[in-house]
Amino acid sequence: MSLILPMATIADELFHLAQIALFKASSYTIVPALTMPPTYHFVVGKIAGILGVETFSGIRMVSAGISFVAVLLAWVYLQNQKSTFPLLQSAQLLFSPLLWPVYWILYTDIPSLVTTILSLILLVNQRYLLSALVCLISLCFRQHNIFWVLLVWLIAMDQTGCWTRLLEVFKNSGQSLFQKTADAARKCLASTGVYLIPIVCFMGFIYFNKGVALGDRQAQQFGGLYPLQIFSCLFVLGLLLLPLHISNIPKMLMLLKKHLWLILLLGALFVLYMKTFKIVHLHNFPSDYFLRNWLLYFLDGHFRYKVAAFGLIALAFLSLIVTPLRSKENYWLYAVTILALLPVSLIEQRYYIVPFTLLMLFRQPKNFITELALLVWFVILSAGITYGMASMQFFI
Question: With 90 as the cut, is the pLDDT of residue 44 above it?
Fold first, then answer.
């Protein structure tokens, strides 16, 4: 892949390459446009220096080598969870069109994902302190990982029975409700309180940094609620997981027949989708190169296609409802994903990489034919994206 990519930088690679080059040359100046802590850049720069890598494509390969650790860790996690098809599911993540193009360019998303998956592996093995420390490291790659730190903590609380103890307190409430709640909270903190370490450190960072982003703060503001981000995520999941959704159609029809109120909910969501379809971020400018921006403006300017796009959104929504996850604590993923995406105005598919990956790890696999069809579908989509990147005609 690195041999067919153009030597020109793609999208934000320009800033990442500049920072990596500085660290490789043992210069510790921070590029002003960099929005995240330069941990990724430091690691890639130092490895490139040790290996004597001098070319742009070589630096890309160093970054890709780090990124591929995510696939290996995904396989370890799936093995740990006794998945039916750990190798096949790992291959799906390798060739996923959401991840595939980012493996090969200088972006922080996949190396950052490595830390999230590692923290989950440590969590399921009840190594809470190590898991919390890896969560802290994850924040040094991307600040947005604070939401996935929260997810890991919520799963840990479920795993250690914190939620069960708190529920029992309210079920058997009496005169000492406050004391019982305090005791249950103390026990919870005793077992999972180590996850406060990355959260407190993150709060300290925001206080001293006077904001979340390091550079380009004008384009990295949080505030407000943007439902279009959630609908965009569902649209992407609708397209990516199409073979899975098709196999779920019988379950979806049964669900709608059993719960007719879901039809009313879909109607309400359609109204919300149409009312909140507003492109507000300066980086979502009209473009033929960035497919996400082209699609946004195309849908915004064509009413019938915008309506048709909601069909894919509704398909993904219903399919996710009938897709079982491995354990009840995994369902925290949906709540945390909404929390992570709703305040973000920039429509950017890379924000969906972590929730998509965790969904692929958490879900119960279907039969071999469906899982194989999903892999083939991923390969076809990724091949198209590869062509666009290699020819410099488009990027997602």
Answer: yes
